[in-house]
Amino acid sequence: MSDDRSDGPPRRDVVQNAELALLLEVAGTPKPGNVDRHRDHADLHFDHFLAGAVGATPGLRLAAGDGPLGEAFERAVGGMSRQRGGNSQFGALLALCPLVRAASRDALTREGVRAAVAETTVEDTCSFYRAFDHVGVAVDDPPEGMSDLDVRQGSGAIPAVRERDLTLADLMAESAPGDGIAAEWTDGYPRTLRAAERIEADDGPVSERGARAFLHLLAERIDQFVATTSDAASAREATDRAQAVLDDEEDAEALAEEFVERGINPGTTADLTAAALFVALERGVEV
Amino acid sequence: MSDDRSDGPPRRDVVQNAELALLLEVAGTPKPGNVDRHRDHADLHFDHFLAGAVGATPGLRLAAGDGPLGEAFERAVGGMSRQRGGNSQFGALLALCPLVRAASRDALTREGVRAAVAETTVEDTCSFYRAFDHVGVAVDDPPEGMSDLDVRQGSGAIPAVRERDLTLADLMAESAPGDGIAAEWTDGYPRTLRAAERIEADDGPVSERGARAFLHLLAERIDQFVATTSDAASAREATDRAQAVLDDEEDAEALAEEFVERGINPGTTADLTAAALFVALERGVEV
């Protein structure tokens, strides 16, 4: 028996909190347009998210260690992909990895996460590209002058990555303007940390706090995943109508039904919600 | 990279399948009277089951190893109990431990599980009693002449356990007549293995297959947990009405609403459903 048994059973560790954050994220309802406790998509079922979270844990355990963060991410995505729904949590895992690394060093702060990001290397970028071999991910065309870095090539882009000597921090900085997760990587997770504070200050079941945080995140910024998978007008609409829910001008349940039906899926916002739930759990929010 | 990467990412291991089985069980709906994807109890929320499953994994990992099975169970229960809902999955973990041990030996058969049970010692029984210190569990009075072994004493019963030189297999055999999980331990898991076959032969999302298996399990035998927490008449009624659902004479959703409202909670049947889902996952059912 280790010492931490003296006050009862051991608490969840960093990896368990990351996994639980993924589970609480998908359970939270209503999250308009997303799979949640009450809604599935045509080809992506709640069960796929459960299997995705469980499958990702060995990779998340690497993220909590000292090895390359890119390999941890690639391993997490590989494990996540062992279910028939396809991409359930690619973006959530990308958002989580630097947070898990920082938390494993007791440095889950803006500075701690910035440090984890700053340490990434060209090899981490190669692993990041390999992760796209495991699962189809909806992404935009790459920025001007970066077509050799199109992530849709998966590991096929690795020669170009090495040629350009691009660390994962560099790549994220290039992508930050059009990608909500890359922006968090680059800026020290400001939106995630604010959403975590909201979850901490909220009350009720933690998954429901996550759903409320999701609405605030969606209302504050366009979800690029909606712009990519639907169009820019739908992305604007999603943000405006999330604000309308917060202003009590729209019903969240009705909006959730409508968005699922129309295929408007604010996936990046869900990814950041998972990240914020992780931070909140690490800060002691009790389930 | 280990060899198993050559055909893509590694598959879930035994422990991951056990955890996923717990998650798929609680997600399965409708499971009349239980917490499921669409229903909570007053003090026991879906989130508590998510945290319970995640928290149980270090104990389940011990169950997949070579150490004492009772300690693995106690550790799983201790980790499960690290949430505010109380007892979410005590019985499911008890049902899973011998199955996980057998699966870790590639012997997930009636004989393999019997062997895992037969190896238990008096020390395993002591650990079993310690597990009751972590969380309140609704149980009946002990059988005649066994009041010194009342599990409600938790570790307080350990001197009597040692005095009687009672292995965990012995204790389960004594309890089998009135306890559906102890009966599985004692008889080589016949109901669990049949339910797993049903899940394998079924189709659709695996959590929904679990919900259908639940109805069959409830229809085939009185749920002792209902008899303990409600009364014998309610337990009979639960079984009869599960059969009525199978006969298309009752609506499962309406029954689920009614049972939750009346506090009729077929918990043992849910525990066996989790066990059956684990067996089905181990046998290759894909999520």
Automatic annotation (TrEMBL), chains A, B:
GO terms for molecular function: ATP binding; triphosphoribosyl-dephospho-CoA synthase activity. This is Triphosphoribosyl-dephospho-CoA synthase. It comes from Halomarina oriensis. The lineage of its organism: Archaea, Methanobacteriati, Methanobacteriota, Stenosarchaea group, Halobacteria.
